[in-house]
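INTERNAL AUDIT FORM
Audit reference: QA-55
Scope: verify that the stored structure record matches its stored sequence.
Auditor: D.O.
Record contents follow.
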Amino acid sequence: MTFLRPVFLACVALLAATLSAHPEWKPAYCVGVIDEERFDLTIKFDVPSYLVGKHPKEATVKELDDLMFDAGRLPAAYAREPAEFRRGVRVFVDGKETPVELVAFPNAAEVKAQSAKQGEEERYPVLLNAKLRTRIPRDTAKVEVMFPPALGTVLTNLRRGMDSQVVMNVAPGERGEFIIGEVRLTLGDFLREGFAHVIPDGWDHCLFMLAMFLGAASLAQALTRSLVFTLGHALTLGLVASGLLPPVGDWIEPVIAATIGAGGLLAWRTGGAARPGTSAPQLLIPLVFGLVHGLGFAAAVTGQLEDWGRTQVVQLLIGFNVGVELAQVAVILAAAVLLSLAVRARADGPFLRRALGAAIALTGFGLMAWRGWELCFG
């Protein structure tokens, strides 16, 4: 019976190979061409693996054979998948989704013929083209494309004429972005940008707001400081945008980090025992810090300020700073809730404020040193 063992192992190996994914899978590839107001997309992809609903790397030979050689499965897949493919290809014109027409999709006979032409050993993948089309206005600034998740990451080449082209990998669930004109932001766009400047992008900004809260005698005082900070932020941003103040250089970044450290230091010293009320000296610190942070943001968008018209600059000053203020209020309210819960759990409120203030001070001054080092020697 020992002679049967090699035969058994060979059968197991053969079965494993049959169940495994086909070895020569290839990623999907898309070419998109914009001609006048027409946008044509040609997507080359492994049709059988898409029809079984899997990425080519994951579809097994057995699954693909069952699809191709079962008399009922291939027609059943074709009854639904071309329409699903069209729905899966999504095109956004300046952020608004536009209808997409499926011009051509490889039929079952073409798939079988191509597989047979490739031979028994290399019958997969079967790479064929699907073609889609949509219309875009002449004044379009940005085109975005999404693909069906089953295609996996799609290597995408988007073109307009001979002078505009972008090549990118578009992952499932993501949009491939193609800028073909001047992108004009709305008031809502600036508001969202301002909020995102703090949450989730501005962890250092959040630390500064936390320091303002920890050093305040009350929630109302903390919110007032936040508002004064935003006014200072808007003032310097407006002065730079209007040309009344020259844009600053990279040296502002260590200074911004120093304000975080100083805010933490003030919170450590007061521990929430600051004088109640909103006297002018108490508001001077957040105002000065806001002026500094406004210079930093103005430096980051100096190039864009030159391209934006007067209307967009006004929208920036209003929308962005309102978004910043809303995010700051969210940080302060979240900190107030967490601190209240900690005190209810019998934590020492003043001690916790001072400890967190000390941690923020160390982080801020450490960040200042790091940015200064990068500026001088980086």
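Auditor finding: record pair retrieved intact. The longest strand covers residues 38-46.
Action required: none
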